[in-house]
Specification:
By secondary structure, the protein is an alpha+beta fold. The protein folds into 2 domains: 210 residues, UDP-n-acetylglucosamine1-carboxyvinyl-transferase, Chain, CATH 3.65.10.10; 209 residues, UDP-n-acetylglucosamine1-carboxyvinyl-transferase, Chain. 31% of the residues lie in helices and 24% in strands. The chain is built from 14 helices and 23 strands. The longest helix has 14 residues. The protein binds ligand EPZ. The site of ligand EPZ has 25 residues, from helix 1, helix 5, helix 6 and helix 12.
């Protein structure tokens, strides 16, 4: 297992390119199962989550070729059983359910395990698929689903106790594109990654309207054809490096991130500006320069479904607030248990009190290096951010958590002038 050693104190400068979005790539790779024709997807990030999805597609019988960021898939001959040993490694693999069910009339996918950010139920996925005609039985940890009479469109509300479901919306949308009749999803997720999937499906010949709003209408069609598509930029990777710029960027010129989409970064931008930092986009909105403010101040963050502040960015902001004067409060209404990073940061001297889905953070002058352990993807990224400004050298073990969703993070940090080294353990 690799670890990352971060020697704190470097000032970051220069620029990097943001990769394609992991959370758009995963459902779009799965959606390639919906056609017998070639699909070419560009800007697929080289991270372990997309590698797992590619392995799952291959195990299902699809031909898959990858050359750097471009993936070619042909799913003419596929089977309906997703392999347990791969599915258990990544929750997002459940988004093969919708495509398999509507293409083959059946699907067997193992129940995804929980993870450190909280239990990860799938009841809303099942509610949506059952609503359009799926028979689903739980057998030995598997979800066995069949559509003996095909799938028929209907209206279904996918809101859960924590709001809309991103992959649940994706799954139902993908199942509905080849169903008979029209499906209406109420309380649909509006994330940019859901919109990218809808755009991908429509370019294959689907008829989806309303993606990006809470009400999505899908009119079923007979077949979908092949397509070429480029994945949208990763707004969470971009947000993570924006926080790095606010924490450790050169005060005069900051750091610049290229290949971003300003429209996908509104809540993160607003919060960085509220905290006293400088965020400036290019006229085209596809690059952003972030500089640390002279008088940073603590803020309150409450995560909520898009277009509000994303849960995937709250850990990174806790790193910023840990060394920001004043008191900050972070409440995660989507994953109330998503505060594993706080215990690790406290080992570095952070003053964080977590209770009932909320972290109260009192800024300190500087954190101190300590051996810490990555736990989940975004918590690990938060530890890297804390290490950038900590006194001394921080060793972050279990780097595989970060490699799941950040493409070449050590190389990108080195390009920005950080003093980091990846060590094979
Ligand atoms: C997606 O996960 C993202 N993953 C997550 O990013 C992200 O944190 C999450 O959306 C919320 O924005 C991918 O896109 C691959 P949800 P997803 O279904 O779709 C509850 C990262 O760091 N819920 O939108 O699995 C659930 O427990 C990852 O990149 C149900 O109750 O999340 C949560 O509280 C982590 N029943 C809320 O809804 C269900 O059937 C939102 O979950 C499904 C979800």
């Amino acid at each position: 297992m690799d670890k990352l050693i971060v020697h704190g104190g470097s000032t970051l400068k220069g620029s990097i390119n943001i990769s394609g979005a992991k959370n758009a790539s995963l459902p779009i790779l799965a959606a390639a199962l919906l056609t017998e024709e070639d699909v070419i997807i560009r800007r697929v990030p080289d991270v372990s989550d997309t590698n797992y999805m590619i392995q799952i597609l291959s195990a299902l019988g699809a031909e898959v070729e990858r050359s750097s960021g471009t993936v070619r898939i042909n799913a003419a001959n596929i089977i309906s059983d997703a392999p347990y040993e791969l599915v258990r490694k990544m929750r997002a693999s459940i988004c093969v359910m919708g495509p398999l069910l509507t293409r083959l009339g059946k699907a067997t996918v193992s129940l995804p395990g929980g993870c450190v950010i909280g239990d990860r139920p799938v009841d809303l996925h099942l509610k949506g698929l059952r609503a359009i005609g799926a028979d689903i039985n739980m057998e030995g940890g598997n979800m066995d689903m069949k559509a003996p009479n095909g799938l028929t469109g209907t209206e279904v509300d996918l809101r859960g106790k924590h709001g809309p479901t991103v992959l649940g919306t994706d799954n139902l949308m993908m199942a509905a594109v080849l169903a008979k009749g029209t499906t209406i999803i109420e309380s649909a997720a509006c994330e940019p990654e859901v919109v990218d999937l809808a755009n991908f499906l429509n370019s294959m010949g689907a008829k989806i309207e309303g993606a990006g709003t809470r009400r999505v209408t899908i009119e079923g069609v007979e077949k979908l054809h092949g397509v070429e598509h480029t994945i949208i930029p990763d707004r969470i990777e971009a947000g993570t490096y924006m926080v790095a710029g606010a924490m450790a960027g050169c005060p005069d010129n900051g750091i610049t991130l290229n290949r971003v989409n300003q429209d996908h970064l509104i809540p993160v931008t607003e919060k960085l500006i509220e905290a006293g930092h400088s965020v400036e986009f290019s006229t085209a909105g596809n690059s952003v320069t972030v500089k640390p403010g002279k008088n940073p101040k603590g803020c309150k963050i409450t995560t909520a479904p898009h277009p509000n502040f994303p849960t995937d960015m709250q850990a990174q902001f806790s790193s910023l607030f840990a060394v920001t004067p004043g008191i900050s409060v972070i409440e995660d209404t989507i994953f109330p248990q998503r505060f594993m990073h706080c215990a690790e940061m406290s080992r570095m001297g952070a003053d964080m009190k977590v209770d009932n889905g909320t972290a109260v953070i009192t800024g300190v002058e500087q954190l101190s290096a300590a051996p810490v352990m990555a736990s989940d993807l975004r918590a690990s990224a938060a530890l890297v951010l804390s290490a950038l400004t900590a006194k001394g050298s921080t060793e972050i073990s279990r780097l595989y958590h970060i490699d799941r969703g950040y493409e070449h993070i050590d190389e990108k940090l080195l390009l920005l002038g950080a003093n980091v080294e990846r060590v094979r353990e």
